[in-house]
Design the sequence.
């Protein structure tokens, strides 16, 4: 075979594959963003660190939920948008690190459309500072750099992420598959086998959780606190922004484990956050509201009928309907359950 | 602009097409264009440091030209050479080492001088070394006279600018004006695309997937975690493979890029983990740096001409400075010193064997070779711990973990998948042919310098231009491009 023919074959294959990939990604993104159930895909685990920054740009939401998988599964924008007549975005990612939480929040508040940021504080739990970011995270996709400046050439990075990356192709393929499985009239809630956020805890899951999380603690390390304070500093001048932080409603059985394993650390975490938020509110224009749902309340203490629960997927991940209840309480809506959780501080 | 990024791929396509258009019609235009895009390539990172690159080029060219003009009929040129060396070493000392020196002085003498926060200009170690070699050769009468234009292109030529290979002007400049036949051009393009693909695949499909495992263990050790034996071994081995594939990938991509443009860069990487001694390792790892250190430092110190004791001292000094070249951290110096020590032991061992006329034969030789390879791998891997660690306490925690005196951390699972990955990685680095061996028939690089390990052209897995080969290359390239979701810089970019 001549060198020219060899080159022709190689380049043709690459060009066709790249074109096919770009075309698939473009078409899939269009279909997902246009589909009425499309926002429910934000609750699905996959390549969320890769694609969610691009989705945030396209959706231009008013409310953004930032945090770990608790947030990802607990707030379905389809339910939230309907209940509150807003456009929301779920920026939850699996095993989020404190740095990622701070950076995703910075990304969210840099978008002019965003008026409210809701964040679960478990993102700042832990003492391990060895792993700064999770797989797939890249600062270049976010609107601002860690120093607060606009990210150089971000449009280019987002373009390549959206249309040329394998991560996007994976998430798009998964998303399209899930949406295609929904029959007309069905929503994500009808297919918990595809949308895990709508699953229900079973006896088996509960036992598994109790064993696996047996040594789990809920404490805040020094590095995590540093990231939290940096995040608060970012909010200081943002009078136009409503920021709500909360301790998530892990089930009472898990809270008991936190207390059993390190009660002092658990209390210190809450006190540290409260102290930082109070100090922030006393000195800054952009106020922060802090709620504690990690106490004895109607959700954490909801009855488990042989391990089954209407509120939980497992002992820490609450279901989207709970997310709506929490949001009602946090936004102070008329029909909110005033006894749910405690408002610790804030306007 | 990192080689493993979409912007670089687009840049490369444009540059190759433009060079194809220009080289037949307007040869000087091709050189001008390459110089322009090389500066653009550098400016993509930070435009203001272009001034440093251009300034350094002008000063070195002026000094080198004056030395060449005076040599050998006029006055001695040594003072000019010294001025040039002071300029180059001063530049690198200022930007790269000032912080280290001030921090160390502060620590030792409690001076409390402010540590300068200068930004490290990308590639400064590489373009400084290349220009030092030009000045030294000019002083010894080896340098030919070239135009400023060609000299500037030699310094800034983008495929080698950021992380090598370290190029000699006499090797590169004559190639800028070479004309290629149509067939040669097609072969260069095919070879270049294939090499680039192999490199990209090594980077995105192998090195980048090993990095998180190595990073998590070293970061934990840096945070004060007493890492367990299992974590320490997995972290260390994964880093040993990460840096191997990362640097090998970079080299393939640099050579591949340059092949597409019809220019051959120096040979730089030859399966270093197949080395059966530390001497052999340094003939295979970063060959262009080893050659530079040998020719311009070790020989300049006297090499082995001044007796066995000074030979060992010279070896140690060369390797200590070679370590420091890698970065402004004492860990790099100790890493270099450790390799210097290894080299001394290796030479002494050889001398003892020669004196006793001992040479293993038959079955013993058959057993000695794999044992030597394993021992060399272990020695270099232990040294990588110091190279990778942010500070000595991190290195100490890792080394304690390696000898079973660490803690009980469980950061990386010693799972069947991890074992399978390690087996596959060992199989590749010990038994698979490297990209140079596969493509050597087409001369993808300038031949190994004198004294370095030769390239053995292989039969099995030899690269052929076949349809199945083209399809395989195309699909490997697509898989590697798909994995480009994140921008993950090459390890050697920081040097």
Sequence:
């Amino acid at each position: 075979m001549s060198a020219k023919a060899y080159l022709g074959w190689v380049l043709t294959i690459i060009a066709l594959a790249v074109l096919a990939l770009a075309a698939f990604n473009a078409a899939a993104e269009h279909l997902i963003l246009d589909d009425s159930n499309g926002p429910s895909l934000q609750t699905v685990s996959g390549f969320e660190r890769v694609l969610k920054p691009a989705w945030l740009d396209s959706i231009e939401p008013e409310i953004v939920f930032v945090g770990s998988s608790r947030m990802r599964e607990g707030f379905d924008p389809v339910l939230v948008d309907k209940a509150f007549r807003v456009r929301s975005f779920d920026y939850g990612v699996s095993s989020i690190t404190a740095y990622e939480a701070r950076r995703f929040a910075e990304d969210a508040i840099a978008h002019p459309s965003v008026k409210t940021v809701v964040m679960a504080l478990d993102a700042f739990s832990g003492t391990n500072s060895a792993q700064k970011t999770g797989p797939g995270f890249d600062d270049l996709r976010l609107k601002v750099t860690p120093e607060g400046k606009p990210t150089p050439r971000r449009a280019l990075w987002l373009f390549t992420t959206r249309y040329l990356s394998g991560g996007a192709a994976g998430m798009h393929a998964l998303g399209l598959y899930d949406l295609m499985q929904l029959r007309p009239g069905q929503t994500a809630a009808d297919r918990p086998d595809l949308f895990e956020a709508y699953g229900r805890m079973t006896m088996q899951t509960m036992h598994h959780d109790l064993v696996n999380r047996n040594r789990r603690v809920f404490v805040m390390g020094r590095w995590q606190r540093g990231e939290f304070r940096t995040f608060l500093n970012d909010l200081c001048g943002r009078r136009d922004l409503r920021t709500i932080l909360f301790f998530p409603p892990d089930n009472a059985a898990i809270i008991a484990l936190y207390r059993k394993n390190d009660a002092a650390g658990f209390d210190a975490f809450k006190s540290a956050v409260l102290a930082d938020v109070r100090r922030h509110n006393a000195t800054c224009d952009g106020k922060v509201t802090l709620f504690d749902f990690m106490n004895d309340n109607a959700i954490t203490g909801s009855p488990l009928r042989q391990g089954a629960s209407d509120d939980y997927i497992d002992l820490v991940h609450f279901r989207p309907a709970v997310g709506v209840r929490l949001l009602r309480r946090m936004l102070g809506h008329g029909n909110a359950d005033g006894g749910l959780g405690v408002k610790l501080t804030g306007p | 602009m990192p080689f493993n990024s979409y912007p670089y791929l687009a840049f490369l396509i444009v540059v190759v097409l433009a060079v194809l258009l220009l080289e037949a019609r307007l040869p000087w235009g091709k050189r001008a264009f390459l110089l322009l895009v090389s500066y653009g390539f550098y400016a993509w990172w930070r435009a203001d440091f272009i001034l440093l690159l251009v300034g350094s080029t002008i000063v070195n060219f002026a000094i080198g030209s004056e030395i060449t003009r005076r040599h050998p009929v006029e006055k001695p040129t040594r003072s000019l050479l010294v001025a040039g060396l002071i300029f180059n070493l001063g530049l690198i000392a200022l930007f790269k080492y000032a912080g280290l020196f001030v921090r160390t002085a502060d620590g030792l003498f409690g001076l409390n001088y402010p540590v300068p926060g200068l930004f490290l200009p990308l590639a400064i170690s590489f373009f400084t070394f290349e220009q030092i070699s030009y000045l030294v050769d000019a002083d010894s009468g080896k340098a030919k006279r070239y135009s400023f234009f060609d000299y500037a292109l030699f310094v800034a030529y983008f495929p080698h600018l950021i992380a090598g290979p370290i190029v000699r002007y006499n090797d590169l400049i004559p190639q800028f004006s070479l004309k290629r036949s149509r067939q040669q051009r097609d072969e260069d393009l095919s070879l270049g695309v294939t090499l680039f693909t192999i490199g990209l695949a090594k980077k995105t499909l192998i090195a980048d997937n090993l990095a998180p495992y190595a990073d998590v263990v070293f970061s934990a050790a840096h945070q004060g975690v007493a890492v367990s034996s299992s974590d320490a071994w997995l972290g260390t081995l994964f880093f040993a493979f990460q840096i191997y594939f990362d640097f090998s990938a970079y080299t393939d991509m640099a050579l591949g890029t340059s092949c597409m443009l019809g220019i051959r860069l120096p040979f730089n990487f030859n399966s270093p983990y197949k080395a059966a001694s530390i001497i052999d390792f340094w003939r295979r790892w970063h060959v262009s740096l080893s050659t530079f250190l040998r020719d311009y430092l070790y020989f300049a110190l006297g090499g082995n001409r001044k007796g066995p004791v000074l030979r060992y001292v010279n070896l140690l000094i060369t390797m200590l400075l070679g370590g420091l070249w890698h970065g402004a951290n004492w860990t790099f110096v100790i890493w270099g010193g450790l390799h210097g020590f290894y080299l001394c032991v290796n030479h002494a061992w050889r001398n003892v064997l020669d004196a006793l006329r001992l040479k293993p034969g038959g079955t013993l030789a058959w057993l000695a070779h794999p044992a030597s390879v394993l021992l060399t791998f272990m020695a270099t891997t232990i040294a990588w711990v110091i190279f990778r660690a942010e500070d000595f306490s991190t290195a100490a925690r890792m080394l304690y973990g390696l000898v079973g005196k660490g803690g009980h951390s469980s950061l990386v699972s010693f799972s069947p998948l991890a074992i399978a990955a390690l087996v596959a990685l060992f199989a590749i680095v010990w038994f698979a042919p490297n990209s140079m061996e596969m493509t050597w028939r087409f001369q993808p690089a300038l031949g190994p310098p004198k004294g370095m390990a030769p390239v053995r052209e292989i039969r099995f897995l030899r690269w052929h231009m076949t349809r199945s080969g083209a399809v395989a290359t195309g699909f490997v390239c697509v898989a590697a491009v798909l994995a480009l979701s994140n921008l993950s810089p090459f390890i050697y970019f920081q040097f």
Q: What stands out?
A: Chain B touches chain A at residues 6-7, 183, 186-187, 189-190, 193-194, 197, 212, 215-217, 219-220, 222-223, 225, 411, 465-467, 469-471, 473-475, 477-478, 481-487 (CB under 8 Å). Residues 184-494 of chain B form one domain.
